[in-house]
Design goal:
The complex is a heterodimer of chains A (about 325) and B (about 325). Chain A has about 325 residues and is α/β, with parallel strands linked by helices. Chain A has helices at about 45-55, 80-85, 100, 110-120, 125-135, 145, 155-170, 185-205, 215-220, 240-245, 250-255, 295-300; strands at about 5-15, 20-30, 35-40, 60-65, 65-70, 75, 90-95, 175-180, 205-210, 225-230, 230-235, 305, 310. Chain A is built from 12 helices and 13 strands. In chain A, helix 5 packs across helix 7. By secondary structure, chain B is mostly helical. The chains are: A alpha/beta (about 325), B mainly alpha (about 325). The interface of A and B includes residues 85, 102, 106, 114 and 118 of A.
Chain lengths: ~325, ~325
């Protein structure tokens, strides 16, 4: 059984009469110890999905699903108390902007020990030792001194290390990393990915890596979920999905990577933007931006088809034999 | 932190010099001059005029007068009341505890009600509770103190007869006042019902005086809290599995307090101004009432000294607030 099992997840905002659909019928499953990359442009619903898993979508946001289970427990049926007991212990999350994700008024030690206090207990002395050990595990330079530092005294990379330390404090089975490297310097990005992957292997935890950077996914994920406008458009294992993408959107994303544009004057881009929550087109959501759109794409929305683990949402999936753009 | 403290304390000195200038020039801004003001309607003989001018030092150059004045201040000499001939400083110190007691109770009331009300309004944003709290606080803020105080007296003292109309304690009680704080003195006297009587006398003036700070604190807390609740670190705190109470009262409040503390400091000025009206209405023997009476009697040394000391208090409190700011906000503590 999958660790995380989501069927037909929908997330809406706004008034019931005029809902804004952020995520529409999303299926996602993550196995124990698996590294899954979730990619897509801004506005594709990646972050909202992760917040829904954490139960951090507040009213007027509405989350509904046919099934939404973590380790066999129904996430939608949890009481607030059960939910809190799970957060930080079974599932933890790190965010995009590490500097603003730490509370500026409290020391690193306080914020680390707080997680331990809720889920592990023990006396303050023991918790402090654990916190120090966690900082060592995330390769924090000079960890003993950083314990009593405030976030503003740390660099962005160090703040993200603290966030990671906080997230792994209770050995979660699933770690959700929402754009963990986006706000960091390029040199730190690689270190941070190595660290996440190393921790993931040591602890055998599942890692859900949300990013818009396919290069990052290529480095560490074993499976990719491509999202577009609140829907999954393609899923597949690496490296298959990079070698022979089946959805035109995945192909376009790959074509936009700088390493696939060597020798060109300009990067290839995808014309247009992700449709907003109000102006989703009929038919295939991508058709206004898709070079291969046919009349059927305008009128009929394709379903996600294929065997589990390798699915595509396209009437005319690529076969890999088309001439390269 | 030390550099921060030094900087803040250093900034007080020019402000203080400004206040002495203002208080000093007061006596020269009176229409005519202070001696004429003293003479009243009966007029005064030229000899007497000369004598009084000389006595008040008004016949010397302005600069000499100012430096004399500051020199006296530095020696703790604030002059003597024209009316009672007592030292201004002594009178001030006798009456000051009454005002402090009233202002502290008003401020405590404002904090005890204002902080939770503002937090609740922010957490239950756009609810009936939010609108009620904000509506009531806007009304409280717009209400003239004297009118509000009279309404309170009309209802609670006259119609319902629950509270006394004026004074600090029932006249039946007579005990020594070593501290000048009626609640403490009453408690120390051990007399039956003394504390209760002091409390009943205190409650209406404290409400009247505390209403505006209460409204300001509630509104400020709400807006600071709303801003903070949107921050990423609040999401992090929730993602840890903290209870909503801990998220709001520890992670959010600590950050929201930073602007609120500034506002609390500024309210001390409001409290001292408000005390003038409140004390007059409730016959509360504090420095507010003392100053009003001094103005009526044209007792300029008292007015001058009272302004100087009230301003000093406002400066000192705001200095304390600035220092407290450093304690609450680590970014200030380390970055100065």
């Amino acid at each position: 059984m999958a660790l995380l099992d989501i069927k037909q997840l929908s997330i809406g905002f706004g008034r019931p009469g005029a809902p804004l659909i952020a995520v529409d019928g999303l299926d996602l499953s993550i196995e124990e110890g698996e590294v899954v990359g979730v990619v897509g442009e801004s506005g594709s619903g990646k972050s909202v999905t992760s917040l829904a898993i954490m139960g951090l979508i507040d009213a007027p946001g509405r989350v509904s699903a046919q099934r939404m289970e973590l380790a066999g427990r129904d996430l939608l049926a949890l009481s607030p108390r059960e939910r809190r007991a799970m957060l930080g212990r079974d599932v933890a999350m790190i965010f995009q902007d590490p500097m603003s994700s730490l509370n500026p008024c409290f020391t690193v030690a306080y914020q680390l020990m707080e997680t331990l206090r809720i889920h592990v207990g023990g006396n303050a002395r023991a918790r402090r030792l654990l916190a120090l050990d966690l900082l060592r595990q995330v390769d924090m330079p000079d960890p003993a001194r950083r314990l009593d530092a405030y976030p503003h005294q740390l660099s962005g990379g160090m703040c993200q290390r603290v966030m990671v330390a906080m997230a792994i404090a209770c050995n979660p089975r699933l770690l959700i990393a929402d754009e963990p490297t986006t706000a960091l310097d390029v040199t730190i990005q690689a270190q941070m990915l190595d660290l996440l992957l190393e921790l993931q292997r040591q602890r055998g935890m599942a890692l859900m890596l949300i990013t818009h950077d396919l290069g990052v996914v290529a480095q560490i994920a074993s499976r990719v979920v491509v999202m577009y406008a609140g829907q999954v458009v393609e899923t597949g294992a690496l490296p298959r999905i990079f070698k022979t993408p089946r959805h035109p959107y995945t192909q376009a994303l790959l074509a936009a990577l700088p390493e696939n544009n060597l020798g060109r004057k300009r990067l290839q881009t995808i014309p247009g933007v992700v449709p907003g929550q109000y102006d989703r087109p009929a038919g295939c959501l991508l058709h206004p931006r898709c070079a291969r759109a046919a009349p059927r794409c305008v009128s009929e929305r394709p379903a996600l088809e294929g065997r589990p683990g390798s699915q595509v949402r396209c009437h005319f999936p690529l076969t890999g034999e088309e001439p390269r753009a | 932190m030390l550099a921060y403290v030094a900087k803040r304390v250093g900034m007080v000195i020019p402000t203080f010099i400004g206040i002495t200038l203002l208080a000093f020039s007061l006596i020269h801004m009176i229409p005519g001059n202070a001696v004429e003001a003293l003479s009243g309607e009966r007029g005064m003989s030229p000899e007497r005029y000369q004598q009084l001018s000389h006595q008040l030092g008004l016949d010397r150059p302005l600069r000499t007068q100012y430096f004399d004045y500051v020199g006296h201040l530095l020696h703790g000499d604030f002059g003597r009341s024209i009316n009672t001939h007592d030292g201004v400083l002594q009178e001030f110190l006798t009456l000051f505890p009454a005002t402090v007691e009233l202002a502290l109770c008003a401020l405590a009331l404002a904090l005890l009600l204002g902080l939770p009300a503002g937090m609740l309004a922010a957490v239950k944003r756009n609810s009936v509770l939010d609108y009620s709290v904000m509506g009531v606080s806007l009304t409280g803020y717009s209400m003239p103190i004297f009118w509000w105080a009279l309404l309170l007296i009309q209802l609670f003292s006259v119609t319902l007869g629950w509270t006394p109309v004026s004074g600090r304690i029932d006249i039946a009680f007579d005990f020594p006042a070593p501290t000048g704080f009626m609640l403490i003195d009453a408690w120390m006297s051990g007399e039956d019902g003394a504390v209760a009587s002091a409390l009943w006398h205190l409650i209406l003036p404290a409400i009247a005086l505390g209403t505006i700070p209460l409204a300001v604190i509630a509104r400020m807390t709400r807006s600071a809290m709303l801003e903070v609740l949107r921050e990423d670190y609040v999401r992090t705190a929730r993602a840890k599995g903290l209870s909503w109470f801990s998220v709001v009262c520890v992670h959010a409040l600590r950050n929201a307090l930073i602007p609120v503390i500034t506002v609390i400091g500024l309210q001390v000025g409001t409290l001292l101004t408000g005390a003038i009206l409140t004390e007059t209405i409730f016959s509360w023997p504090g420095i507010g009432k003392w100053l009003v009476e001094a103005i009526h009697r044209r007792d300029y040394p008292v007015v001058q000294g009272g302004i100087l000391m009230s301003a000093t208090i406002v400066i000192v409190v705001n200095l304390a607030v600035d220092l407290l700011y450093g304690v609450v906000n680590p970014r200030i503590r380390h970055n100065s």
